[in-house]
Each structure stands twice: as structure tokens, then as C-alpha cells.
Amino acid sequence: MVHTPETPETRAQPPEAPKLRVSIVRSGGFAGLNRTWTAEATSEADISAWSALLDQCSWRGADTPGAGASVGPNAGPSASPVPDRFSYRISVSVSTNNTASTNDTVSTNNTVSTTNTVQPERSAVLAESELNGPWRQLLDRVQSAE
């Protein structure tokens, strides 16, 4: 049997920390221009704080404007989108980069494989009038992160 010593290229790297990404695209308005804000969190504390806020948002049925994604005492379907008003597409994804090393003691091949894992994305499309409660807090927090 042949054993090849580890080198920096073949040594297992510690797994990269997860990354949470929140993107908000505002579209519509009088000029019909899009504006995008993005926030990323990589530390465990930041991801936990963002996740707490994201969990407060009502994601069920929030895939089209006016679908009642708002929360609070007035939650429920809103009127049809109003011309020249904004709509907001909110997307959340979590990705990890895991690196694993396999040291094959029978042959001289050492392999390092890297896989990117992206957890299922949550998304919502909200009319401007639906941005209240946690949704408004989320928008404000993402905007202030830039």
C-alpha cells in the first residue's frame, strides 16, 4: 500500500460558514424603475438575528402582490395592485460551502471535493400596501445594511 502525505492542496478545509442572503427588488412606480437591496449574514449571531425576523414574516401565500401576505389585525387579501405603486420581491437563501477530503490509502490519489449547498429559497411578492409589521422591519433592515 502506498500512502501519500497530505499537502495544503489535499488537506480537508474546515467547512465554510453558512451565508444567509436577503434580496429585495422594488419595481413599479411612476417611472417603472427597479431598485435592489441585498444584505448578507455570515456569522452565527447575525444569521440567528436575521432568521428571527424572517420567521415573523408570513411567507405562506406571499408569492403574488395582493395575496394577503401582510400580518397583523388587517391581514388578508388586499385590493388589486394600484397603478404607479411599488411592488416588492423579497428573496431569502442560505448557502453553505462544504469541503471534504478523501485520502485513498490504496492508490496515490488524494481528492478534495467542494460542494455548494443552497437551501430552498423563500420568496414573496408584496404590494406596497402590504409592507407592514415584520415585512416593513425586514425592508428597513435590508436597506440599512447597504
Automatic annotation (TrEMBL):
Residues 1-21, 61-83, 97-129 are annotated as: Disordered. It holds the Pfam family Emfourin. Residues 97-118 have a biased composition (Low complexity). InterPro entries: Emfourin. This is Uncharacterized protein. It comes from Subtercola frigoramans.
